[in-house]
């Protein structure tokens, strides 16, 4: 008599990837990454990009406002700084047409540690053009009173 023993194991542990990081691509083309210090004038602005699936892509401005800008600011390591959405051309150029628009219809509550943890339409699902890429301005709180003329409200 032959007996076959079959054993099935089920794992309940899951592996999750860390949240996708962000960066700002400045008008000059310079990149402001997580942990970079603010420039001497206390301000940095640029197109918001997120790294996902092996490459950098952009974030659509749909739903992107002050709360999302502050989440980006915090994620970049600029706690104690303020962030806001900036639609001006001075904040950065649109992404190139070969870049994926990764995030659209962003919905941040303000307690997220990473922009990619905010609600959104889903990775790569969008109805945007690169002319709608989100841009943000970050600044040091101690520089605000000295530089009110630089703020565009």
Descriptive notes:
A hairpin with a 2-residue loop joins strand 3 and strand 4. With 153 residues, this protein is mainly β. The protein is globular, with a radius of gyration of 20 Å. It has one domain: Mac-2 Binding Protein, CATH 3.10.250.10. The C terminus is likely disordered. Strands 1, 2, 3, 4, 5, 6 and 7 form a 7-stranded mixed β-sheet that branches. The chain is 9% helix and 23% strand. This is SRCR domain-containing protein. It holds the Pfam family SRCR. It comes from Effrenium voratum.
**Alpha-carbon Rg, integer:** 20 Å
* Annotation, overall tally of beta strands: 7
User: SSE order in H/E notation?
Assistant: EEEEHEEEH
Give the N-terminus to C-terminus distance in angstroms.
84 Å
Low-confidence stretches: 6-15, 142-153
Task: Name the CATH superfamily classification.
Answer: SRCR-like domain
Q: Main β-sheet: number of strands, strand sense, barrel status?
A: 7 strands, mixed
Proportion in β-strands: 15-25%
What is the mean predicted local confidence, pLDDT? Answer: 79
Oligomerization state? single chain
What is the global morphology?
globular
Q: How helical, in percent, are the residues? A: under 10%
Please give the count of helices.
2
As for the CATH topology, it is Mac-2 Binding Protein
The CATH architecture can be named as Roll
Number of domains: 1
> CATH first level: which class?
Alpha Beta
Q: What structural category characterises the helix and strand content?
A: mainly beta
């Amino acid at each position: 008599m032959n007996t076959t023993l079959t054993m099935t194991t089920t794992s309940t542990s899951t592996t999750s990837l860390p949240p996708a990081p962000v960066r700002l691509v400045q008008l000059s083309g310079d990149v402001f990454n997580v942990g970079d210090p603010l420039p001497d004038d206390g301000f940095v602005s640029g197109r918001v990009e997120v790294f996902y699936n092996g490459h950098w892509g952009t974030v659509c401005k749909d739903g992107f406002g002050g709360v999302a800008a502050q989440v980006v600011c915090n994620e970049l390591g600029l706690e104690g700084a303020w962030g806001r959405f900036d639609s001006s051309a001075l904040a950065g150029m649109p992404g190139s047409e070969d870049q994926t628009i990764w995030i659209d219809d962003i919905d941040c509550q303000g307690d997220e540690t990473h922009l990619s943890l905010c609600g959104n339409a889903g990775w790569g699902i969008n109805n945007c053009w690169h002319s709608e890429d989100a841009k943000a301005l970050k600044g040091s709180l101690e520089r605000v009173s000295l530089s009110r003329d630089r703020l565009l409200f």
